[in-house]
Design a protein that fits this description.
Distance between the termini: 71 Å
Strand content: 5-15%
Number of helices: 13
Oligomer: single chain
CATH class of the largest domain: Alpha Beta
Number of domains: 2
């Protein structure tokens, strides 16, 4: 259960999902587990139940909610993940990369380090076989449609523009009409789904996987490390940097950088497959756009 692309799945995000989803004693247990993660190895089940004002039965219920048979199995997996996180601790905390007392210069340096670490982390978990598969899917797709929500939809727009610069039309499914988009795609098309948690099959964009699969649409998933719904239902998955919490953070600095990097890699590998033709197309269009821009400026000058 704990094994994932990088050795361990990220239970922290799953626990945050439980905290958000349930308004009962499981929330209290989840909040306590995250707060006392470094001290849990020294606590018995009785101690945890006492400190959370719950019971052993509640702890078992909490563990089963996340997918474990009992508290002991859960706590063993969780402590493995805590140790893994401690051993591989980044120079900058992706959730709280700067503090209130930091100078502007310090903040700038820390954000720079964080973005560099995010890309490095993404490269470390990049599965080249999956990348090859993803590029082949894109090359053979009649149409390419991206399914995602904010903030990734803005990164998808940048990818769309890059692809358009070499003559490839990419659609971005409007979340309000994404269900319609999913219903018109066919086995000749490709869908790219971007979701950090990758776990809630009733929410955007994961809710469209079932319909896309029924229609034979080739799917590329971009999600975090671990056994989530996307990984269980999509054959081609690329992994984004996964050190951020779902909700307890200042912003999506690391994941945005990671997704942007992966989309740039997809574009570049696609470009490489027909390098000279794509380069010629790109340069020709760039010159045409500049020529038209200067022509427009000259007309404005001549007709004040």
């Amino acid at each position: 259960m704990t094994k994932g692309c990088d050795g361990f799945m990220y239970l922290f995000q799953q626990i945050e999902e439980v905290i958000l989803k349930y308004n009962d004693t499981r929330r209290a247990v989840g909040e306590f587990v995250l707060k006392e993660k470094s001290n849990l190895r020294h606590m018995s089940m009785n101690e945890v139940a006492k400190k959370t004002y719950t019971s052993k039965a509640t702890l078992v219920r909490f563990a089963k909610t996340i997918g474990y048979s009992g508290w002991r199995e859960f706590i063993t997996a969780f402590m493995e993940e805590v140790l893994y996180e401690e051993r591989s601790r980044a120079e900058v905390d992706p959730n709280f990369p700067f503090q209130e007392q930091d100078s502007y210069e310090s903040i700038a340096n820390k954000i720079g380090v964080l973005q560099t670490e995010s890309i490095s982390d993404t490269i470390n978990v990049l599965d080249i076989n999956m990348l090859n598969q993803a590029v082949n899917i894109l090359i053979n797709a009649k149409t390419i449609t991206l399914f995602c929500i904010s903030p990734y939809i803005y990164l998808a727009e940048i990818f769309r523009r890059k692809m358009l610069s070499i003559g490839v039309i990419v659609e971005i499914a409007n979340p309000l009409e994404a269900r319609l988009s999913a219903q018109v795609l066919t086995e000749s098309d490709c869908a790219i789904l971007i979701s950090y948690s990758g776990n809630n099959e009733i929410l955007e964009p994961i809710s469209h996987i079932s319909a896309l699969k029924k229609r034979g649409v080739k799917i590329i998933g971009i999600t975090s490390v671990g056994d989530n719904y996307i990984r269980k239902n999509v054959d081609c998955v690329l992994t984004m940097s996964s050190r951020e919490r779902l909700y307890s953070k200042i912003s999506n600095f690391a994941t945005e950088e990671s997704v942007h990097f992966l989309l740039n890699v997809l574009f570049s590998c696609y470009f490489k497959q027909n390098y000279q033709a794509n380069l010629d197309h790109k340069i020709f269009n760039a010159k045409e756009i500049e020529r038209q821009r200067f022509s427009t400026l000259n007309n404005i000058k001549e007709n004040p």
